[in-house]
Amino acid sequence: MQYRILPRTGEKLSALGYGCMRLPQKDGGIDKEAATRQIRYAIDHGVHYLDTAYMYGGSEAFLGECILKDGYREKVKVATKLPCGMISSREDMDRLFQEEMERLGLDCIDFYLLHSMNGELWDSMVSLGIIDFMSRLRETGRVCHIGFSFHGANKDFKRMIDAYDWDFVQVQFNFLDENFQAGIDGIRYAHSKSLGVMIMEPLRGGVLTHNIPQEVQDIYDHAFVKRTPAEWALRWVWNHPEITVVLSGMNEDDNVRENIRIAETALPESMSEEELTVIADVKSHYHFRIGCTGCSYCMPCPVGINIPLAFSHWNINGIEGGDAGRMFHAVMAGVSTSDGETHWVTDCRECGLCEKKCPQQLPIRESLKQLHKDMETPEWIAYAEKTRQAMQQGVTGDEFQAATN
Question: Which end of the chain is more exposed for a tag (fewer CB within 10 A), N or C?
Answer without folding.
Answer: C
